[in-house]
Design a protein that fits this description.
This protein is mostly helical and 280 residues long. The chain contains twelve helices and four strands. 64% of the residues lie in helices and 4% in strands. A hairpin with a 5-residue loop joins β1 and β2.
Amino acid sequence: MDFDSQDMQPTAAMGQPKRSDLVAEEIKRLITAKNLLPGDKLPRESELQSMFAVSKSTIREALKSLEVQGLVKVSTGPGGGGMVVEVPLDRTFQLMQNYLFFKEVRIEDIYQVRKLLEPELAASAVAHLTDAHFAALEHNIQCCDPMAEHVEDPLAQRQEEMNFHDIFAAACPNSFLRFSCEMINQMIRQLTVFDNEMPLQEQAKFGMSNTKFHKQILQAARERDADRVRALMSDHMHDCMRSVTRMHGKLKGRLILDSEMSRRTMARNARRAGRQKAGG
């Protein structure tokens, strides 16, 4: 396929895409056609040049575009080149949150969706929870208990409580449902702010209510009672919305910076390592 032919020359007047963008699209088609999986290598740069009849700089620009999208990883040196990778969740979260920055989204809107999805996610995960999941859930409850000793930052505890729901999400067999709930959890974790004058007793009340529900949900999950888990999670979501409203919580939209992504990835990896350690 020759992208240097006259009819493919990009012109600003016609609004045609750049040649590198067209090549990036063709590489996507190549990945699909060959059913390439994460870890599979793309053809070498020289092969891609020959395949699409474009310059080395055009190939490199196309690969860079795909790397920014999270679809490939480009390495240099002997044996280097493009390799297919799974799009990182953090990158997807960033794009979604930046999209919503320009929309009018209230925390009530988020909880309206969360109240529908979270009970179904938890119920669907019950049959797939392992001993490691149960240990991680137990550990999370202990860390977030407002009655625990040396609680220095109650709000940080409330953010950590979101990991309880992420553990259920990790066991959910429905990947789209899992992603939807993880996206909601990320938004609540990162974008929710509370009144600075919020009394400590209100924070503690919220934490105690969450701990009570989490303990009940964990017990029902250990008994493999999916229906009870669903009902408890539904009650928990309604209670959370009441607590957030009482505490004057709201979403504060902001653009997510690339510099935050690496820190978030490191934090997520540390949490995973902690959960694996807790599970033995």
